[in-house]
Amino acid sequence: MLFIRSALFAVLFYANLALWLVACLPLLAAPPHYLFPVARAWARTNLWMLRVVAGLGVEWRGLDNIPKGGLLVASKHQSAWETFALVAIFDRPIFVLKQELLSLPLFGWYLRRVGMIAVDRSAGASALTGMARAARERVRDGHQVIIFPEGTRRPPGAPPDYKTGVAFLYDSLKVPCLPVALNSGLFWPRQSFLRRPGTVVVSIMPPLPQNLPRKNVVGVLEQRIEDECARLTAGNDAAFATAQSAAERSAPPRKPET
Predict the structure, then answer these.
(1) Domain tally for the chain?
(2) Does residue 134 fall inside a structural domain?
């Protein structure tokens, strides 16, 4: 039954995505702000399908911690789930994402049109400068800039690997920085086809203190997010074990010691 429900959701998810991408093509000629309500409706449709078909719901905690206007959102990244789910709660979200996504047919056109911030990971320090410049423009226009501080998905319980890019943005933007913890990887594991029933809990915490020294930002952010993720994972031992098993199967083989 789990396989059947997961397969049905996958079919509906991609069919729904294709339908929205094609139906909204005329909006690519309109001002970008028209696309955000559409994206929010698409994201909420996905969450509804996930709940009805796969039995996976969501609980949002701390929505009242979201201030008005431009801000920086630093979210844990365990699954593909949050790449669309966070769109459902922010008015004008802009993601920091890898440059390759802009080349996707149709989908990449929308990413470019709304002004997503693409990062060339091979560009080194110049990529950080370009990212900060683009992010300043977005928050000045009232957008919420969303970054995954570890740069890629990490399964529940994996050692954290926070990068310095989030500290660079914190120091450059001078806007509230919201830490976000979640447990999506328990139910939508990385590189797994199965969507397990349950409730994804998303905890939106109060903003980081203002004027933190840049060298302290990563440490403070990591402690807040990882401590909260550990609390959200507690009590889900079976799901945690399954997520860990999936992560181990997808991990690259270790090189032999010499």
Answers:
(1) 1
(2) yes
